[in-house]
Amino acid sequence: MADLDTPFRRFVADFREDKVAVGAAVLFVAIFAAAMACAYISPQNPYDLRQLDIMDGKMPPGKASMDGLVFWLGSDGQGRDMVSAILYGLRTSFLVAVTSGFIAAAVGTAVGLAAAYYGGWVDTLLMRTVDIKLSFPAILIALVLLAVFGQGTGKIVVALVVIQWAYYARTVRASALVERRKEYVEAAQCLALPQRRILFRHILPNCLPPLIVVGTIQIANSIALEATLSFLGVGLPITEPSLGLLIANGFEYILSGVYWISFFPGVALLVTIVSINLVGDRLRDVLNPRLQK
Amino acid sequence: MQKATLKAFAFAAALAVATPFAGLPAPAAAQTLTVGVGGNITSMDPHFHNLGPNNNIAQYFFDRLVHFDAQQKPIPGLAESWRSIDDNTWEFKLRRGVKFHDGSDFDAEDVVASFKRVPWVPNSPSSFVAFVLGLETTVVDSHTLRFRTPAPRPLMPIDFAVVNIVNRKNAESPTSDFNSGAAMNGTGPFRFGQFAPGDRVSMTRNDAYWGEKSHWASVTTRIITNASARTAALLAGDVQIIDQVQTADLPRLKQNTNLRLERVIGNRLIYLHLDHNRDETPFLFDKATGQPLKANPLKDLRVRQALSKAINRQALAERIFDGEAIPAGGLLPDGFYGASPKLKPEAQDLAGAQRLLREAGFPNGLKMTLHGPNDRYPEDDKVLQALGPMFTRAGIETSVVPMPWATYASQSSAPTFAFSVMLVGWGSDTGETSSPLRALLATRSPGFGASNRGRYSNPTMDALLNRALQTVDPAAREKLLFEASELAVGDVGIIPLYYQVNLWGLRANLTYQARTDEYTLAHLVKPR
Lengths: 293, 528
Prior knowledge:
The complex is a heterodimer.
Chain A: H1 7-16, H2 19-36, H3 38-41, E1 63-64, E2 70-71, H4 82-118, H5 120-135, H6 138-149, H7 153-180, H8 183-190, H9 195-231, H10 243-251, H11 260-287
Antiparallel strand pairs in A: 1-2
Helix pairs in contact in A: 2-4, 2-11, 4-5, 4-7, 4-9, 5-7, 6-7, 7-9, 8-9, 9-10, 9-11, 10-11
Chain B: H1 2-21, H2 26-30, E1 32-37, H3 52-61, E2 63-64, E3 66-68, E4 74-76, E5 79-86, E6 89-94, H4 108-120, H5 129-132, E7 136-141, E8 144-148, H6 156-160, E9 164-165, H7 175-180, E10 190-196, E11 200-205, E12 218-223, H8 227-235, E13 241-243, H9 250-255, E14 259-274, E15 284-286, H10 301-309, H11 313-321, E16 325-327, H12 350-359, E17 366-373, H13 380-393, E18 396-403, H14 405-412, E19 421-427, H15 434-441, H16 459-469, H17 474-490, E20 494-507, E21 510-512, E22 525-527
Parallel strand pairs in B: 1-12, 1-13, 17-18, 17-19
Antiparallel strand pairs in B: 2-9, 3-4, 5-6, 6-8, 7-8, 10-11, 11-12, 13-20, 14-19, 14-20, 15-17, 16-20, 21-22
Helix pairs in contact in B: 1-8, 10-12, 15-16, 16-17
C-alpha cells in the first residue's frame, strides 16, 4: 500500500473518516451542480418576464399554474416558481461568492506574502491597514460601498472583495512568517534565487492548507453576506432575485400565512451554508498538522 | 431584518406608553382615543406647509369656511351659505355664535386676518397662497363677506375648504408659536394639548363646539410611520384606529374578529405617463439591435393604445392589492365630480395589442425600459414588476427599473424628463376632475401642466379645460370636464391603471366614515 503515501490520497483517506463531513461534501456538490445547471433543469426561467404571470402569484406548494406548470414549492408574489427561483438564486450566490473569494484570496495572499517576507515598515504598513479594515463591521463597509456604487452583481463582488481580502492577508502572513525562517528558504536564498521564485514557488505552496480552510469558510460567509445585502435591498436588482431578495420579498407575507416565499429559500440558504461549513471544519482538522494522529 | 427590529421597537415603545395609562379609572378610559397615523406632521401652523398630514391635524383645532364631507363634496363650515352674485363675485354668509377656544367671538375680521396671514408666513415649504390669491375682499357686515376676482373662479368654495381660519390676534404669530401651542386658538372640535414632533399630538374635547361634538374627551394622535409597526400597535391595542393599512397585513386584519376595516375608493389615480414630446425618446429601443429608435413610437396613437391593451388591471387589483384597488379607466373614480361615466377600465387584449403594434410598423415588437418609484405608493415596486411581463407578452420586451422616490421624482420631471414610460400617482386635492386634467394633461404653461411629465399637449383639450375653469354653472362645467377627460384619455395622454382604496383598521366596537381625502379625524370615530 505504498501509494497511500501520496499527500492527496492521505488527505482523502483522512477526510473520509468523518461521515458527517462526507455527507456534507456530497450535499454541497449536489447543490452546486444543480445551481450551475439551473438553466437546463429548472422548470421555468424566473428571470424571463414572458414566463411570469401575476395571476400565478402566491400559489401554495403543489398547486399548478394556469399553463399547467406545478409549483412544487409554491410561487412568489410575481408568479415565479420557487424551485426555479431558488436554483437561479443559488447560482447567483455561488458566482458572486466564488468570484469574490478568488479575487480576495489573490489580493490577500499578495499582501500577506509581502508583509511576511519583507517585514519592517512594509509589514507594519500593510498589517495596520488590515487592522483598520478589520475594525469596521463587514456589513457596514458593504452598505457604504453599495450606497455609493449602486446595485448590481459586479458591484457586490467588489464590495465582497473589499471585505474579505484582509482575512486572507492575515492568514497568509501568519503561515508565511513561520515558513520564512525554515531552512529550505534560507537554502533558496543562499542559492540567490530571485525573490519572486522564493515567494511563489517555495513559500506560497506551504501556506496553502490554511488558505484553503479560510477560503471555504469565507465562501459560506460571503453567500450569507450577499443574502443579507439583498435582503436589505442594496444588493441585486429586484427583477433578478437572489436568495436574500426572495426571503425579503416573502417576509412581509409570512404573518399572513404565505410562508413558502421566505421559508424555502431560507432552508436552501441554511443547508448550503451549513454544508460548506462542515466541509470547511473537516478540512481544517485534516490539514492541521497539530490535530493529526 | 430591519422591519423585524422596527417591529420589536414598536412593541417595546407601545408597552412603555401603555403602562402609565393602566391605572386610569374606566370611564375616563372609555372616552380616550388613541389614533395611529402614518404621515409625519411637520408643523402645527395651519398655514405653514400644504401637506396631507398637516392639513389633517389642523382640522382638529381649526375650521374652514367650507368643509368637505367624506366624499369631498363641499358642505357649510364657518360659512353657513355661499352664492355667486355674478361671474366674478362670490358672497359668503358666516355662521353666528361661533366661539374660539379662548372664548372670543368669530366674525369676518378673523377671515380677513387669516387670508392675510397665508402669504405672510415665512419660510413656507409649500404655501397655501394659490388658494387666496387675487381676491378683492369686501366686508359687507360682521358676518357677510364678498370676494371679487379678475376672472371667473367657480372653484372658490373648494379653494376655501383648504384654508384654515385662525384668530385675528394670531395674524402675525410666527410658526413657532403654533408649534408651542401659544397661538393654537381655533374654533375646531378639539383644544390643543401638546405637540411632540415625530411622536404625538394630544388634545381635549372642545365642549363649546358649534358642530357635532366629539365622543372622545381626550385624543392622542401617535405618528407611527412604519406600516408594520402601525399594524402591530393596533393588534396590541395601543391604538384604536390606524390609517394607511399595508396590503400585506390585510389577511391578518381580516381574520381578527376584534378588528375591522373601513374602506373607500380614494381620489388617487395610479397611471403611466408617456413621453409625447421628444422625437427620439431615451428608453424605447429597436427589438433586434437594442439601439434607441430614430422616431419616438409613443407619438403613434396605436403604440399608446397597444400599451394600454397589454395591461391586466383586474389582475393588479386582485393579486397585488388583495382586491383593495379599483381598475381605472378615467381620471377619478365614478361618483366624483367631472368623472365621465363613459370612461371604463380597458380589458386586457394581448392579440389586439400585437395587432396595433403591427399596424404601427413594429411587427417584431419593441424594447422598452419602464421606470417608477419603489417607496412612494403602496406596492409600487410590485406593480412595476407585474407590468413588465404584461408588456413583454404583448410584444414590448420590458425591463423594469424601480428607484427611490427622491431620485425618481427629480429625474422624471422638469427639466430632465429622463424617462420614456413611467409610473406615477395623482391625488385630486380638490376632489374633482379639473385637478388631474390641469396638472397632468394640460399643455405646460404657468399654472398648467405642472406635473405633466409626459408633456402631452392637445390644444382642443386645453380649450375645453379653460372653458370649464371659467364656467360657474356646475352642470355646464361638469359636461365640459367630461368632454375634456374623454378626449385626453381616448388619445391615451396617460394610461390609467387603478384607483387606490383608502383603508383604516380599527377596533371592532368603533365605526369610522372612511374618507376619500385620506384624512383620519377623531371626532368622526364613533362607538358602535
